[in-house]
């Protein structure tokens, strides 16, 4: 499928002064794609040049080159007697335009205007940041080609959205797709020693963008071979291995999706509420299929004929069928052959339409039954088995072969699949992969949530949450389905390990764990208390060998089990101190330093009604130890205060007697025993005493966003990123840093109150003798009426109490009047806000009568270097300035592509380092999301 690119450079504005004699600039633009370069005319002596030529610069290339190569526009200053000076560059990836053009060629749901990108794009320089803007028009045209052996994936859409995209219905889930590419890092090539820092940074930025495009194309090819037309939950990462090169990795879930028909009435965002109404009506007519779904794990016969399998399957579960596939359902054509997903899924007959999807019959035969999405439609998750994780320590060789790296990850996936099968689970949800590299030692981590799933449910998201003490649904109506997800999938006496189980608080029949850990988001219909809390835990181990070569790798491999045990123990203790009994959206990562190894875990703590109420951690010491008694009493007081602040102390009366200690009862001190319970704190060393005392300290922070909160209409979400860095002292330094980061983010976002914080992302690093923590996330403003509803979610710190801590009084009248003026302006004009909102959620919290239409996926990568870190305010100021520039460029790209909002937004810090002696700093950021157009 060959294509044609047409580029027109219209004008520029706000360019920097390059000619000191006249305080002007002689600007021209070099347009480069592949090996072809065009140049515009020189616009003399102007900081706002106008290229009035109607000429279009054309490039005719192959489809694979269209997807891999970026379009580069270099803004230059013309000099007559010396070399031309570079002002900055605009690097445009054509993947978003190709996806729109391929959709336009099929004539299904194409955006107006076809594959056109038009607007003002900031000119970025790796040494000075943004240096003006260029008005550019880019058009892409593809020629139809039905070549069976094509090398592009232009017809496959990519979604960073962690769920079935709003406005779409998934007709089939085909399975897990992945790809990996190893290439040289231009930063470590020999030519880097003789070229300028700007040229080196630009070469690195372009090389990374090419790798990103190439990995996406290969993943799209695998999805197309499976018969899919989209990849949902797409994740892309870079592993910087120094001189060994850079590894570009991508994973996703291949699905077949179709757009939902446009209803006659307007759709509210989040969408799919009309579908949920239809589901409720169908449940009334057909006689509540929820009880039947509770009995069946999956493995139903596919529905034949023209009736959609999703709708018919809701009422076809009268006969319970176990999770084990029957022998009559076997299909030799889908038996896994070899070690790739293509071999296990791609040998079923003729065309792509006949290839098997990830249905109930062949789910157990899949090599990797993994799903990268974190949010699922109601009825999809039958039982949650728990979090499964596999780690491996490897030595990075100098060869840098893709086959060896792929084999490493294949080993972890196979181990993770075995863990899920041991828990009697059929799939791994919210699957993610992470890598930590230090010199030539690499720690690979693969994690997910083992679960029993029902692939015959309706693949349309339902945003109706169920909470204790309120909510839009009656608890009795969904009693069976609400507690089913918390039931263990294995028999109480046949578990793979010794687990503490209790009777379910909902149905009183099945068994549930006392603590539930999951990397996926909480199912909306799983009954829980309305409040949620952000939890972080940091554990550290001192290294006993040099950080490099085989002794260092062996030492880290020996330290990892103890590190994970300490992290798990601290996380459970913190969970109990908050009065919660479940953690969702759990993320763990490993950081390797020269002197120690650290692990960080973060997640959202909630109180589930089906699980027994938690008790506070107890101290293991003798009764004569007065210090231990004081710590135990402080832990008890903090536990009661946290539980009351989070709203976990009130609930159904029948759920208040499942092992909970009465308030008037004094917490007992455990006697010495040989049982090593994870929630028993032993005061054997000074560090243990310090940890126990830190648990008794209450920390205030912003509440976590949950679907039952009301988002303020007219107030855009606020994306933020902050770096915290300190000297590496005791092993508890990371714990204090994480607490300070959360409290600092809450303080800096205090003017948005009432607001909620979407589960933030943490990146822990150990440069030299320092510890560095980068926190990124999104704050969602809530309606003013919800201030009374949300003050308990602040961990005891109400907005009024936070205002008392301010250095100076805030102008409250101005804060109250600002939001109504913005709302009235939007209601009168009916237009989208001038500022492009960025949110990490899959939807935009717009007002009633609004509708969202997805445009394309966007991914960008930037390199920034400076020689004046101290002048910019230190390393944090440097990153803050760079982040502001990146967000401005992202908003400009979103508007130029035809969108007015960016959902599923992510910003990943791949590298942040500085040289204090030379006043130098360097940072590498990767950003992206889904471009949507919201009609107000």
Structure commentary:
This protein is α+β, with helices and mostly antiparallel strands and 936 residues long. Helix content is 24%, strand content 30%. Strands 26, 27, 28, 29 and 30 form a five-stranded mixed beta sheet that branches. A four-stranded antiparallel beta sheet has the order 4-1-8-7. A four-stranded antiparallel beta sheet has the order 3-2-5-6, with no helix packed on it.
**Into which percent range does the helicity of residues fall?**
10-25%
3D shape: globular
Structural class: alpha+beta
Low confidence ranges: 107-113, 264-355, 469-480, 652-666, 668-678, 785-832
Q: Compute the CA-based radius of gyration.
A: 28 Å
Strand content: 25-35%
Contiguous helical run count: 17
Biggest sheet, open or closed, and with what strands and sense?
A: 5 strands, mixed
Short structural summary:
Helix content is 24%, strand content 30%. The strands form ten sheets. Strands 26, 27, 28, 29 and 30 form a five-stranded mixed sheet that branches. A four-stranded antiparallel sheet has the order 4-1-8-7. Strands 3-2-5-6 form a four-stranded antiparallel sheet, with no helix packed on it.
Topology:
Layout: E1 3-13, E2 27-33, E3 36-39, E4 57-61, H1 63-68, E5 71-77, E6 85-92, H2 95-106, E7 116-125, E8 129-142, E9 157-158, E10 168-183, H3 197-225, E11 230-240, E12 246-259, H4 273-286, H5 290-295, H6 309-313, H7 341-345, E13 381-395, H8 402-422, E14 427-438, E15 441-453, E16 466-467, E17 470-471, H9 479-484, E18 501-503, E19 511-513, E20 516-517, E21 533-542, H10 549-577, E22 582-592, E23 596-606, E24 618-620, H11 626-645, E25 680-682, H12 686-695, E26 703-704, E27 718-727, H13 733-748, E28 755-757, E29 761-765, E30 770-781, H14 787-790, H15 799-803, H16 812-829, E31 851-866, H17 874-896, E32 901-915, E33 920-935
Parallel strand pairs: 9-11, 20-22, 24-25, 26-28
Antiparallel strand pairs: 1-4, 1-8, 2-3, 2-5, 5-6, 7-8, 10-12, 11-12, 13-15, 14-15, 16-17, 18-19, 21-23, 22-23, 27-30, 28-30, 29-30, 31-33, 32-33
């Amino acid at each position: 499928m060959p294509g044609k690119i047409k580029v027109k450079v219209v004008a520029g504005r706000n360019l920097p002064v390059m000619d000191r004699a006249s305080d002007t600039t002689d600007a021209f633009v070099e347009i480069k794609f592949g090996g072809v370069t065009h140049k515009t005319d020189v616009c003399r002596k102007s900081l706002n040049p106008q290229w009035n030529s109607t000429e279009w610069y054309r490039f005719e290339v192959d489809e694979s080159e269209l997807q891999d190569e970026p379009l580069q526009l270099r803004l230059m200053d013309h000099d007559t007697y010396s070399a031309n000076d570079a002002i900055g560059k605009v690097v445009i990836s054509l993947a978003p335009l190709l996806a729109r053009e391929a959709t336009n060629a099929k004539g299904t749901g194409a955006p107006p205007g076809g594959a056109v990108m038009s607007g003002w794009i900031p000119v970025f320089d790796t040494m000075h940041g943004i240096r003006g803007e260029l008005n550019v028009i880019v058009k892409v045209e593809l020629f139809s080609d039905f070549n069976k052996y094509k090398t592009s994936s232009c017809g496959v859409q990519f979604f960073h959205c962690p769920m079935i995209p709003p406005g779409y219905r998934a007709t089939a889930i085909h399975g897990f797709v992945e790809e990996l590419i190893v290439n040289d890092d231009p930063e470590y090539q020999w030519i880097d020693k003789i070229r300028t820092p700007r040229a080196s940074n630009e070469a690195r930025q372009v090389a990374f963008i090419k790798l990103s495009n190439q990995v996406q194309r290969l993943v799209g090819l695998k999805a197309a071979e499976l018969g899919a037309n989209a990849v949902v939950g797409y994740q892309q990462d870079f592993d910087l291995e120094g001189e060994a090169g850079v590894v570009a990795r991508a994973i996703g879930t291949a699905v077949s999706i179709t757009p939902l028909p446009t209803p006659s009435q307007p759709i509210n965002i989040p969408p799919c509420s009309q579908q949920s109404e239809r589901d409720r009506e169908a449940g009334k007519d057909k006689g509540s299929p929820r009880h039947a779904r509770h009995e069946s794990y999956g493995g139903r016969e596919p529905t034949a004929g023209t009736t959609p399998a999703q709708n018919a399957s809701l009422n076809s579960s009268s006969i319970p069928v176990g999770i084990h596939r029957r022998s009559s359902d076997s299909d030799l054509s889908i038996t896994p052959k070899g070690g790739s997903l293509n071999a296990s899924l791609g040998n079923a007959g003729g065309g792509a339409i006949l290839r098997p999807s990830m249905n109930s019959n062949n789910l157990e035969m899949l090599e990797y039954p993994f799903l990268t999405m974190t949010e699922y439609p109601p009825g999809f998750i039958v039982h949650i088995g728990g979090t499964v994780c596999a780690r491996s320590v490897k030595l990075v060789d100098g060869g840098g072969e893709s086959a060896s790296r792929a084999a490493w990850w294949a080993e972890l996936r196979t181990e993770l699949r075995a863990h899920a099968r041991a828990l009697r689970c059929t799939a791994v949800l919210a699957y993610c992969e992470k890598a930590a590299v230090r010199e030539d030692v690499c720690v690979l981590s693969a994690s997910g949530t083992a679960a029993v799933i029902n692939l015959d449910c309706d693949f349309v998201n339902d945003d109706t949450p169920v909470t204790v003490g309120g909510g839009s649904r009656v608890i009795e109506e969904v009693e069976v389905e609400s507690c089913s997800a918390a039931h263990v999938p294995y028999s109480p006496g046949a578990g793979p390990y010794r687990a503490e189980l209790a009777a379910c608080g909902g149905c009183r029949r099945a068994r549930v764990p006392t603590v539930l850990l999951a990397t996926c988001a909480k199912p909306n219909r799983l009954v829980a208390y309305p409040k949620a809390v952000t939890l972080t835990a940091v554990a550290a181990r001192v290294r006993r060998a040099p950080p490099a070569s085989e002794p260092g790798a062996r030492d880290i491999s020996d330290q990892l089990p103890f590190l994970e045990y300490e992290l798990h123990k601290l996380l459970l203790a913190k969970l109990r101190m908050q009065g919660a009994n479940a953690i969702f959206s759990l993320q763990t990562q490993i950081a390797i330093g020269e002197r120690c190894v650290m692990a960080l875990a973060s997640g959202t703590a909630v109180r589930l009604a089906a699980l027994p109420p938690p008790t506070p951690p107890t101290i293991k010491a003798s009764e004569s130890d007065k210090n231990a008694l004081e710590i135990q009493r402080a832990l008890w007081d903090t536990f009661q205060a946290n539980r009351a602040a989070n709203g976990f102390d009130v609930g159904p009366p029948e759920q208040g007697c499942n092992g909970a200690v009465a308030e008037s009862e004094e917490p007992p001190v455990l006697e010495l025993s040989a049982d090593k319970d994870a929630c028993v704190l032993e005061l054997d060393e000074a560090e243990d005493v310090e940890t126990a005392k830190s648990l008794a300290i209450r920390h205030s922070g912003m509440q976590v966003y949950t679907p039952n909160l009301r988002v303020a209409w007219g107030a855009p979400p606020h994306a933020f990123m902050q770096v915290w860095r300190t000297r590496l002292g005791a092993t508890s330094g990371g714990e204090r840093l994480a607490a300070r980061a959360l409290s600092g983010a809450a303080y800096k976002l205090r003017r948005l109150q009432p607001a909620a914080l979407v589960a933030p992302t943490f990146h822990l690093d150990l440069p030299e003798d320092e510890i560095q923590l980068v926190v990124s996330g999104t704050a969602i403003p809530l309606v003013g009426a919800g201030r009374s509803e949300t003050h308990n979610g602040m961990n005891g710190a109400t907005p009024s109490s936070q205002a008392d801590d301010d250095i100076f009084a805030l102008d409250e009248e101005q804060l109250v009047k600002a939001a109504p003026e913005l709302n009235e302006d939007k209601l009168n004009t009916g237009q989208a806000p001038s500022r492009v909102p960025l949110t990490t959620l899959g939807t935009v919290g717009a007002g009633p009568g609004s509708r969202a239409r997805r445009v394309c996926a966007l991914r960008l990568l930037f390199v920034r270097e400076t020689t004046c870190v101290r002048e910019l305010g230190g390393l944090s100021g440097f990153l803050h300035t760079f982040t502001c520039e990146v967000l401005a460029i992202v908003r400009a790209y979103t508007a130029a592509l035809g969108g007015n909002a960016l959902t599923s937004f992510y910003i990943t810090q791949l590298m942040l380092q500085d040289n204090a002696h030379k006043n130098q700093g360097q940072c590498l950021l990767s950003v992206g999301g889904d471009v949507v157009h919201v009609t107000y």
